[in-house]
Automatic annotation (TrEMBL):
<dbReference type="GO" id="GO:0006313">
    <property type="term" value="P:DNA transposition"/>
</dbReference>
<dbReference type="GO" id="GO:0004803">
    <property type="term" value="F:transposase activity"/>
</dbReference>
<dbReference type="Pfam" id="PF01526">
    <property type="entry name" value="DDE_Tnp_Tn3"/>
</dbReference>
<dbReference type="InterPro" id="IPR002513">
    <property type="entry name" value="Tn3_Tnp_DDE_dom"/>
</dbReference>
<feature type="domain" description="Tn3 transposase DDE">
    <location>
        <begin position="6"/>
        <end position="220"/>
    </location>
</feature>
<protein>
    <submittedName>
        <fullName>TnpA family transposase</fullName>
    </submittedName>
</protein>
Amino acid sequence: MRAYDYVDSHGQTEIGFGVTRLSGFDLLPRIKQINKVKLYRIESGESDLYPRLTPAMTRPIRWDLIEQNYDQMIKYATAIKQGTASTEAILRRFTESAAHPTYQAMLEVGRAQKTIFVARYLRLRELQREIQEGLNVVESSNGANSVIFYGKGGDIATNRREELEMSVLCLRILQAALVYINTLMLQDVLADPEWTELLKPADQRGLTPLFWQHVQPCGEVRLDVAKRLSLGGAAQAPEAGDPD
């Protein structure tokens, strides 16, 4: 079973499709302006093979470029999977020289994979639903992170590895605590026979512990409007003869 990654429309880059395909998992983006997506031909001389797709068809895939740089592409993909090099570092090296033959070959792999994906996306309604549902989970998780990891606007303003790791580990603890508490709350609700009868199987499938509307990031603030606040430091006792 292949792994997959759900991304929004901005994630449907050709290099993204290429890197993920070489890394052994599928990129599943949500495509908003699918009418502007171009499909690449398998080979030349097929201009009349798909007459209804002619407006969306463009040039053939350069399979020769993929074949010539196949070993190098596998080398970089293996480095990414084993963690000896990051995807960002490799792509940064390539973007400094967009004419790099290995980078161009990865683009061709991405164009082929993107064409395959778009054909599946248009044909399979269940794939569209799966991607939408997957993105809903991702967006819900990101929304929760913005609430529980709100210091400095949620930005990690450091490049030091130790501080980055500490921030991410603290965030994971908060995530685990939130999911744990929410799961216990859901269990209590589902243990109630009244709710068990009310919630149908479809409703129960839609339950998720990734909700945060009950979270108070700054704690609970209670105001007593009947009590006067001391704004000038410690309150002084009134002198004799002074009105209260």
